[in-house]
Amino acid sequence: MAKVKTTFFCQNCGTQYPKWVGQCKACNEWNTVIEEIVEKQEKRSWKQTANTKQATKPLRVDEILLNPEERIITNNKELDTVLGGGLVKGSVTLLGGEPGIGKSTLLLQIALQVNQKVLYVSGEESQSQIKMRAERLNKKQNTDCLILTETNTQQIFKNIENITPEVLVIDSIQTLYTNSIEASPGSISQIRETSAELIKFAKETATPVILIGHINKEGHIAGPKILEHMVDVVLQFEGDRNHSYRILRSQKNRFGSTAELGIYEMLSNGLREVSNPSEILISKKDANLSGIAIASTLEGTRPLMIEIQALVSSAVYGTPQRSTTGYNLKRLHMILAVLEKRAGFKLGAKDVFLNITGGIHVDDPAIDLAVVSAILSSNQDLAINPNVCFAAEIGLAGEIRPVSKIDQRINEAEKLGYKTFVASKYNKITAKNHNIKLVLVGKIDEAFATLFA
Ligand code: TYD
Ligand code: MG
Q: Which of 188, 201, 235, 424 could disulfide-link to 400, CB 3.0 to 4.6 Å?
């Protein structure tokens, strides 16, 4: 009998060890190193055309013929934007996200929307379960969407040869296994091997492949990190269980920017594309409440209006508390220090809570001025006019600094019916005839004076 070759892999990060160890040296997790059989056979399942192809030659850059990537429009605007204009033929996309966030729903919806022949392979749900989901989605059905429940890649490829799909969806990569190695499905070596087969298939047939990937407890895609290097696009589907919004982000994109963002709302009949996110991010209130300010932020190329809520109250316990949701706590500390030192507000003995509504996280420094305004509004217990919005960064000297793409932000605010836009006086504003009142300030005190005059 042939000797079985085995190696040890950390199931958390994929590091390989020649012998068993109790703690992974790379990720410091205990008891995650497991023995896997890696006995390799020569046989690779996707046709061995690679060996028979002519050897490639190096070419001078100016000799290389440029064939622009062909894209398939998925008819799902948010996804198309995040991908940079549609699915590139022959590309491999990995979609990660927590269980129950809506990965299968999103991809089934796309499979039913796109005007192409789609093969949706599921290793997680039965055909009737998927049918039930499809009924629920109630979309104009793509009759060319075929559902296969299979986990063996050789069987999948056999079906592919008969069907010749134009788009392949795999739900999920962790359930697949190939005959060429013995390890169990979901193990590091199976994930690496099956994805290598699928990537080879995608490249050789120019068929786009979308893989669903589970994530581990740190929120990274489970399986070898190398998987993220092997694929062309890595998308993350995230959201808060308590909110119905879902955000699709790209972490890596070989064919476009990673700054773009897609927003969906999970409804009882599937995911709705949210083309005007400000509508859901700003809560509608009748009364003017203190501690609320609207910030104009940019996610990728898309301007978004978000609502910042602050609560400043006297600390009940000895040490004042500072806590944030959706905003960097260190940045809040910095802003409080600036307010204390440069503008003379005594907040040292106050609890400060800051919240970005809608469950989203914002890193854009342009929301600083809105954060300051919300804090001061809560501190003075004076409401800010709800028709005012802000876009400026705060410097350590208490100066109000310019932000990028100011014209775009102003246009968006104007479109959404805001009356006053507060920005830095150092910002170069090119467009002149705005229908919105611009208030340009240089220091926190000036902003304070105009706000609560
Ligand atoms: P699912 O796509 O199965 O998540 P994942 O594949 O990421 O694990 O999403 C399941 C959740 O979405 C489930 O809790 C029910 C909810 N859902 C809706 O709210 N509306 C719908 O139309 C569908 C199909 C699911
Ligand atoms: Mg699923």
A: 424
User: Residue 418: what pLDDT?
Assistant: 86
Buried b (16+ CB within 10 A) or exposed e, 232-243: bbbbbbbbeeee
Distance CA 417, CA 403 (A): 21
Q: What is the pLDDT of residues 257-281, one digit of tens each?
A: 887 788 899 999 999 998 877 776 6
Cβ < 6 A, ligand 1 pocket: 97, 99-105, 133, 136-137, 266, 268-270
CA distance 207 to 334: 50
DSSP string for residues in 90-146 = T-EEEEEE-TTSSHHHHHHHHHHHSSS-EEEEESSS-HHHHHHHHHHHT----TTEE
- Cα of 44 vs centre of ligand 1, distance in Å, is 35
pLDDT in tens, 378-412: 999 999 988 899 999 999 999 999 999 898 889 88
342-381 residue pLDDT tens: 888 889 889 999 999 877 788 889 999 999 999 999 999 9
